[in-house]
Design goal:
By secondary structure, the chain is an all-alpha fold. The chain contains 13 helices and 2 strands. The protein is globular and about 55 Å long.
Length: about 350
């Protein structure tokens, strides 16, 4: 005769029992509880957490705005003649770009599912915009071959990311929707800067084509923008004005080009001043909204607020000469130091946040 079944709960001590699996869960509890950014490893039927975790595994696509912010502030300081702080900001920009480029590559080849999921979000276009901002600053430094390489890289990434984003566009979108314009105008700025530095006229013509497309993309993004974001957005709502600022910067570069004379020069100058005026209007509205509805908590999208601040300042500084409106330079100087202060404040909040929650951005 067989012995009666044994109730395992009577022979397994309480402290050795496996924790109950939550209802509806298909993963072991300890796997589900693995800290974000760490690689769970299965060994001898148990799950352990790798201690060699990549801290950048938590980087969202929106982190590219931090590169853009540092890069455009470096450019503005260079235009202002403040070379030492400009080089410091450039080093920060380049270091962040290298980190994000490594993360981009790892996701592309190591986690294609996550890459595809993130590639159709507007924030993914910060990869293009950040590359163009860094390239434009390196061109001003005289590193034309490297700047040309970054232009080629940005131009290669741009079509696929842009199409993926446009295919998933909807209504009532956040300010990140304007990144379709920012990335495109970034190509125009970098191509125009290289055209002036190298004398390659075809780059100037390519810059004009990108500039015109960027204008159309801004209009389309504006139609889809949820204006409630002005008082409730977490930071990327500032891109609504920043996109016009980079448009004005691109127009200023085209206005200064020898390629466009007569009516073309006049039209580009008018567009530069019009878009710059509208970006300043956005600046005032968004600043008033921040005062009426403060949002002091740190969010990675706050870097998308710093970038427009720096871009508006740099656009004013850069437009003063080609347009002949000299008072834009002192205005741009004031706005640039505001942007520097905003960058430092955002960085301080990032450091404080990482101390409380290591691994977050």
């Amino acid at each position: 005769m067989l012995p009666p079944p044994v109730d395992s709960r009577k022979v397994i001590p309480e402290h050795r029992r496996a924790p109950a699996r939550p209802e509806g869960s298909s993963l072991p509890p300890r796997w589900r509880a693995a800290p974000a950014g760490r690689d769970p490893v299965v060994s001898a039927g148990r799950v352990r957490v790798s201690v060699r975790a990549r801290w950048w595994a938590e980087l969202p696509p929106a982190a590219g705005a931090a590169v853009m912010a540092a890069g455009i502030i470096s450019t503005g300081l260079h235009v202002l003649g403040r070379e030492l702080p400009s080089l410091v900001a450039l080093i920060v920009c380049a270091a962040l770009w290298l980190v994000l480029a490594a993360d981009f590559t790892v996701r592309l080849f190591g986690d294609p599912r996550r890459f595809r999921a993130e590639a159709d979000t507007p924030a993914a276009l910060t990869a293009v915009a950040a590359t163009t901002v860094l390239g434009a600053r390196l061109s001003l430094l005289g590193w034309q071959p490297l700047a040309l390489g970054l232009l080629a890289l940005a131009a290669a990434l741009w079509p696929g990311l842009l199409i993926a984003v446009l295919r998933h566009w909807g209504r009532r979108m956040p300010g990140a929707a304007f990144l379709v314009c920012v990335a495109t105008q970034g190509l125009a700025v970098l191509a125009g800067t290289l055209a002036a530095a190298t004398g390659r006229d075809w780059l100037g013509r390519a810059a004009l084509a990108a500039f015109c497309l960027g204008l159309l993309l801004y209009a389309e993004a504006l139609v889809r923008f949820d204006f409630r974001e002005v008082v409730s957005g977490a930071g990327d709502h500032w891109v609504a004005g920043g996109a016009l600022s980079i448009t004005a910067l691109a127009a200023s570069g085209l206005t200064a080009s020898h390629l466009w004379t007569g009516w073309a020069h006049t039209a580009l100058r008018a567009v530069a001043l019009a878009t710059l005026g509208l970006s300043l209007a956005w600046y005032a509205v968004l600043l008033a909204a921040e005062a009426l509805r403060p949002r002091p908590r740190y969010d990675v999208r706050r870097w998308a607020s710093v970038f427009p601040l720096g871009m508006t300042a740099t656009a004013c500084l850069s437009a003063a000469g080609p347009t002949g409106v000299e008072w834009l330079r002192p205005l741009g100087t004031v706005l640039l130091w505001i942007a520097v202060g905003a960058w430092l404040l955002t960085f301080a909040k990032l450091v404080a946040t990482r101390r409380l929650a290591p691994g977050g951005w």
